[in-house]
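Blinded run. Sample ID left blank on purpose so nobody reads anything into the name before looking at the predicted structure. Input follows.
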Amino acid sequence: MCADHSRMGSKGEALTLGEDEVISLLNQAKYLYLRHISEPEDNSLRLVVEEAMEDRSQIGPARDPASPFAEILKDASPIKSTDKSKTFELHWSRYVAYLVTEEVVGSGGDYEGEIYTGKLFRVYTKSHFLDHLSGDTGGHIEPIVHYKLVCLNHLIDVASYSPPEVRLLSTVSESGGTKIRPN
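Blinded prediction complete.
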């Protein structure tokens, strides 16, 4: 896992944020968007996810009152990232396998018998993904752990021998969008 992260306290003093606290913040987010996925080196994986929230200031009448969805959408508000949203980086120095699934099709499966902890960042001790890997792959040198990030629009499953390095990234708002500062 990674080193501590600093943030400013209410009186301007620096506070130290450990990796467990960063994972806790990740799991406290209401929604996440996948913003970046890459393999910086062979068989390593880097994910950047950004917190999102409901924009309650944009609740209003349906755009098209004649729409069959007008009643359902009457109190709906957009979900988006803001300049207050936290951005997280997860980096696996080595992975066994990963799978990115479109959220709608990935949310309709059978989860009977799966065991995990976490909300949006899950750690599984039993899952269909682990069952698939144990039956269809071999030559593993250590036990495999299954991690899952539950994002709006994407579900990301990662199998690895070791946990990811997780850190809170600083963000900067530019013309209404959020950009990730390079490392």
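Unblinding after everyone has recorded impressions. Residues 18-54+77-180 form one domain.
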